[in-house]
Amino acid sequence: QVEHPVTEGITGANLPACQLLIGMGVPLTRIPYIRTLYGKDPKSAEPFDPETTPQRPPESHVVAVRVTAEDAADGFKPTAGRIDELHFRPTPDVWGYFSVKSGGGIHQYSDSQFGHLFARGETREAALRAMAAALRDCVVVRGEIRTTTDYVLDLLASPEVTNNLIHTGWLDSRIAARVKPGRPPWHISVIAGAVVKSAAAVAAASSEYLGYLAKGQLPPAGISLTRMEHTMVIEGFKYAVTLVRRGPGWAAVALNGSSVEVAYRKMGDGGFLMQVDGESHVVHYEDEAAGTRLLINGLTVLLAAEADPSRLTASSPGKLMRRLVPSGVRVERDQPFGEME
C-alpha cells in the first residue's frame, strides 16, 4: 500500500512494524500499536476482541498528493527529460519523498510518478491548507519535465474539494471538461517574460560590446544595453513589449502606450525576484522546443515560439508509428494526423 502513511497518520499505527510483528507470530491483540488504536494499555497482555471493541477517534485528517511528470494542460500527457532542480522542504505538517534528485531526470520508459506528499491537520480543512502551502512554497521542480503541481493546487481550491462534494467520477468529469490549471495574471506573465528575455539580450549585447572593445574597435551604435523590444505569444495572444532599463535591477515595461515600473534581481538559482506594484513574484524559466516556459509563483505559463503552420511537430520525444493522412492533404482542426509511441 503506497498510501500507508495516510493510514498511519490517521490511526497512529506503524503498519510495516505491525506486519513484521505479525510475521514473527505476535498476535494482533498483543501488538502495542493495535492496542493503542483500540484504547488499550500497550504494555498489557489483556485480551480483547477487535471485532466488537470500538477504536479511539482518529488522530488527524491526512491528504496525499502524487507528484507526476505529466502535462495537465495537454491531457495529462507524460513528459520526459532532465531535472535541473528538485527541492522539497518538509514542514511539521507535511512529509514526502522523491525517487529522483537535482541533476537527474525522467526517461520515456519510467513511471511518471516520482514524488509523494502527505499533509496532516486536526481538521480536513487544515490538512488541505497545509498541502496547498507545501505545493506552493516548499516544492520546487524545474527542468524539461512538466508536473501536475499547479493543477493540483487549482484542484485543492475548487469548491467541490473544499466542500467535500467529490465522488469517484468527479475527476474524470473534470478532465473531460478540460479544466485548465491556474495561470498567472496575463500582465504579470508579460512583464516576467520581458524581464527574462531582456536579461538574456543584455548578456548577449554586453558580450558583443566588450568583444569589440577588446579588439580596440568602436562598438556599432546599434548595440543597445538599455532598450529591448520583444514579441511574445501567450495563450494565443501576441504582445509587442518594450523594456527600457533605468538602472541596475530597475526598468520600465511598455505595452500599447502604457507602462509600469518593475524592480528585479537575479537569484542564486538562476531565477528572478521581481516586484511590480508593491507585490513580489518569484520567476524561473526553461527554454524548450515550444518556447520559453515561465514558472511564476508556482504557476506555469508558456511564451510560445512563433510556429510555422505548415509544419506538424510534436512537443515531446517519441517514435512516429504511422501517418494517418498522406502528404499534401488538408488537415482539419482536431483531426488526428499521426500516431506516436
TrEMBL record:
Q: Has UniProt tagged this entry with the keyword Nucleotide-binding?
A: yes
Supply the alphabetized keyword list: ATP-binding, Ligase, Nucleotide-binding
Q: Which Pfam families match?
A: ACCA_BT, Biotin_carb_C
Q: Name one GO molecular function term.
A: ATP binding
Tell me which positions the record assigns to the signal sequence.
none
Domain annotation Biotin carboxylation: ranges: 1-176
Q: Does the keyword Nucleotide-binding apply?
A: yes
Q: Which InterPro entries match?
A: ACCA, ACCA_BT, Biotin_carboxylation_dom, Biotin_COase_C, Rudment_hybrid_motif
Q: Which domain of life is it from?
A: Eukaryota
Q: Please name the GO terms of the biological process aspect recorded for this protein, alphabetically.
A: fatty acid biosynthetic process
Q: What name has this protein been given in UniProt?
A: Biotin carboxylation domain-containing protein
